[in-house]
Write a structure and sequence with these properties.
- The protein has a 22-stranded antiparallel sheet that branches.
- The protein is built from 10 helices and 22 strands.
- The protein has a single domain, classed as 4-Layer Sandwich (Anthranilate synthase), CATH 3.60.120.
- The termini are far apart.
- The chain has 425 residues and is of the alpha+beta class.
Length: 425
């Protein structure tokens, strides 16, 4: 089946919400399937405790717990679900809050039951319609390579302020509040043009195994995530936290040298191991006794702009409900720190913005209850002609604040390298 995916995304986006979950890295072991979902039959979204559902043109609202509402929604539909879990859903799991300034004002959660679902298998090179029919008129959709422009990038948190935040976090570590914390800051810029072209350009700069393009109401998400949060296949649950980053070299020799330096860096290994222990603890909450394992520790994976240290943690689940499993492990330890609850409280205290979609998870749930979700990093969020992009990293007692700031700039290259006009960075 010969399909112009870009043209189809454009067409479906003109109808209603559309979600492309794309495995982009041809040589990555987890670049296996790409899904394109659209023409929603039903939608659920939440902001705080206000739940909104839409079906057959009828919209209903009620007050409740978003996790419970999502579970009920899934039970009612017994179908594929595509969408995202925002970081601030943490507030419905623990005694936490999100009171910082929210530039984006996105829903904390958004899922849809697609009426149209296309699967592309990268191993066989074949496409398969899982739901619906190929829509008529796709060929006439606007497939012009529309341009885009990004204005001057503004930092919500200055470099000096971010260094102070890191030092403050290190005082908390010294006082025993936690031993690792993930801190971040948000950039923004004016945006004009076609978000889909931004997504494709980000993909060209650095293909990833867990990419995503989501066009939802008045928000567009362009995600170039290299990190898996959680996958369930049968009874097996897999998490692959990333902690440890190095920039790429200018030639093969320098690139290999930087990889070896990352692998042998004691600070990066210590940070990665802390998060692996946290993930093991999270998975033990839903695992059969004795089944939590670490088949790979300190693996190095290379992407377009960075090398990353990736570990793999697996478990055999005693719990069968996918929402319960996601809830038990959310949010991911690589974006919070350890211990998790203490770190999240301090994140709210030190950061100056509401994370929202950033640090959440984008993915799908199958009718059988299997699922796969990424970690929302390296992600541009566009709303009302404004682009938002957050970057961060893990902080420990021996972190160098200036180097931590520099690392966030390396991570920002997934966006900043898409356009030669971004000369102000």
């Amino acid at each position: 089946m010969e399909i112009n995916v870009e043209q189809l995304v454009e067409f479906l986006g003109q109808q209603e919400a559309v979600m492309l979950l794309e495995s982009q890295s041809a040589d990555h072991p987890w670049s296996q399937k790409t899904y394109l979902a659209g023409l929603p039959k039903a939608i659920i979204k939440a902001r705080g405790n206000r739940i909104t559902t839409r079906k057959n043109g009828t919209e209903r609202q009620h007050i409740g717990n978003p996790w419970q509402a999502l579970q009920t929604f899934r039970q009612q539909h017994s179908d594929w679900l595509f969408g995202y879990l925002g970081y601030d859903l943490k507030n419905h799991l623990e005694d936490l809050s999100s009171d910082n300034w929210d530039s984006v004002q996105a829903p904390d959660m958004y899922f849809m039951v697609p009426g149209f679902l296309l699967e592309y298998d990268h191993q066989t090179g074949r496409s398969k319609l899982l739901k619906g029919d190929m829509p008529a008129g796709v060929e006439s959709a606007n497939d012009k390579q529309s341009d885009f422009s990004i204005g001057r990038v503004e930092y919500r948190t200055s470099r000096a302020r971010y260094l102070d935040i890191i030092r403050n976090a290190q005082r908390h570590i010294t006082e025993g509040d936690f031993y690792e914390i993930n801190l971040s800051h948000q950039m923004s810029a004016g945006f004009k043009g076609a978000p889909l072209q931004l997504y494709h350009q980000m993909k060209r700069v650095g293909p990833v195994p867990f990419g995503g393009y989501l066009q939802l109401d008045d928000i567009t998400i362009c995600s170039q995530s290299p990190e898996r949060f959680l996958r369930k296949e049968g009874s097996t649950v897999i998490s692959q936290p990333i902690k440890g980053t190095s920039e790429r070299g200018s030639d093969v020799g320098e690139d290999e040298k930087l990889k070896r330096r990352l692998l042998s860096n004691p600070k990066e290994r210590a940070e990665n191991l802390m998060i692996v222990d946290l993930v093991r603890n999270d998975l033990s909450r839903i695992a059969r006794e004795g089944t939590v394992n670490v088949p790979e520790l300190f693996g190095i994976q290379s992407f377009g702009t960075v090398h990353q240290m990736v570990s793999t943690v697996t478990a055999e689940a005693s719990e069968t409900d996918p929402i319960n499993i996601l809830e038990a492990c959310f949010p991911m330890g690589s974006m919070t720190g350890a211990p998790k609850i203490s770190a999240m409280r301090t994140i709210e205290e030190l950061e100056d913005y509401r994370r929202g979609i950033y640090s959440g998870a984008i993915g799908y749930i199958t009718p059988a209850g299997d699922f796969d979700f990424n970690v929302v990093i390296r992600t541009a969020i566009i709303r009302s002609d404004r682009l938002y992009y957050s970057v961060g990293g893990a902080i420990t007692s021996d972190s160098d604040p200036e180097k931590e700031w520099d690392e966030t700039q390396v991570k920002a290259k997934a966006l900043l390298n898409v356009d030669h006009r971004l000369q102000n960075i």
